Structure formats: structure tokens, C-alpha cells
């Protein structure tokens, strides 16, 4: 079964990723706007993509890991100096972004709402 993690903010993300260096399985990371008091992300595309991604997780390798990262509130994300934007490991331009960590596979924005694309990203090549 896929191991799921939820991370909030850049420092926690860095700490978590550093611990995964010796991981042998696939690591998929979803970057999303942080949740509001309603329990949903402030990012409408993130909200629309979430059920598609959760369904497609069934296609992921059982020994893989899924990391849900909340990047902060809308103001933090819009800041061009947001560390998720400037970190060379993430280089985020759009939310949501779903990627296979350390690999070129990446879906951004509306692509994350496409079940076929999301399933392909989760399947082992």
C-alpha cells in the first residue's frame, strides 16, 4: 500500500525530503495551496484535482510514497520569492504541481485534473 505523508510549509518539506535520500521506491509529491478553515485548499484547481489524484493513487506501486505538501496561503504563494518557487529542486510555477521526485515526470495546473495523465505519472515505467 502507498505510504502517504502530509507536510505543511517549506522547512518541514526540506526536512522530510532530506530523510528520503535512501528511499528505494518511487516518491510522488503533490504541491498544493494550504487548506483554509473549511478544510479545502484556497486554490480552486487544487480542489478539483484532489479527487482525481486520490483515485489514481490506486495505480501507484505499493512500495511508493505520496507526499502532500501545503505551500502556504495565497499571499505566500504569490510572492515571487516563495521558497517553493526558488528552490531548484522544486522550481514551482503553478499549483497544483504533481511530480515524481528526482525524475522529470511533472504535471502542472489543469494537467493534474486529467485522470489519464495522472495515472500515467503514478504507473512505474
Report on the structure:
This protein is of the alpha/beta class. The chain is 32% helix and 20% strand. A 5-stranded mixed beta sheet has the order 1-3-2-4-5, sandwiched between helices. Strand 4 and strand 5 form a beta hairpin. The radius of gyration is 14 Å and the shape is globular. It starts with a strand and ends with a helix. The model has no long low-confidence stretch (mean pLDDT 93).
* Global mean pLDDT: 93
Count up the domains: 1
CATH superfamily: Glutaredoxin
Distance between the termini: 18 Å
SSE pattern, N- to C-terminal? EHEHEHHEEH
Instruction: From the 3D structure, determine the CATH topology.
Output: Glutaredoxin
Summed up, the helix count is: 5
Our estimate of the beta-strand percent is 15-25%
CATH architecture: 3-Layer(aba) Sandwich
Shape, please? globular
Key features?
5 helices; five-stranded mixed sheet; Glutaredoxin; 5 strands; 125 residues; alpha/beta
Helix/strand layout:
Layout: E1 3-8, H1 10-19, E2 27-32, H2 44-56, E3 65-70, H3 74-78, H4 83-86, E4 97-100, E5 106-108, H5 115-122
Parallel strand pairs: 1-3, 2-3
Antiparallel strand pairs: 2-4, 4-5
Helix pairs in contact: 2-5
Amino acid at each position: 500500500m502507498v505510504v502517504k505523508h502530509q507536510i505543511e510549509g517549506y522547512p518541514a518539506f526540506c526536512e522530510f525530503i532530506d530523510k528520503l535520500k535512501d528511499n528505494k521506491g518511487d516518491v510522488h509529491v503533490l504541491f498544493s495551496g494550504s487548506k483554509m478553515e473549511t478544510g479545502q485548499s484556497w486554490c480552486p484547481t487544487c480542489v478539483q484535482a484532489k479527487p482525481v489524484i486520490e483515485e489514481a493513487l490506486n495505480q501507484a506501486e505499493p512500495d511508493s510514497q505520496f507526499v502532500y505538501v501545503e505551500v502556504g496561503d495565497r499571499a505566500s504563494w504569490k510572492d515571487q520569492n516563495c521558497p517553493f518557487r526558488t528552490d531548484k529542486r522544486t522550481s514551482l510555477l503553478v499549483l497544483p504541481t504533481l511530480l515524481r521526485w528526482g525524475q522529470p515526470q511533472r504535471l502542472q495546473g489543469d494537467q493534474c485534473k486529467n485522470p489519464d495523465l495522472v495515472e500515467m505519472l503514478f504507473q512505474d515505467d
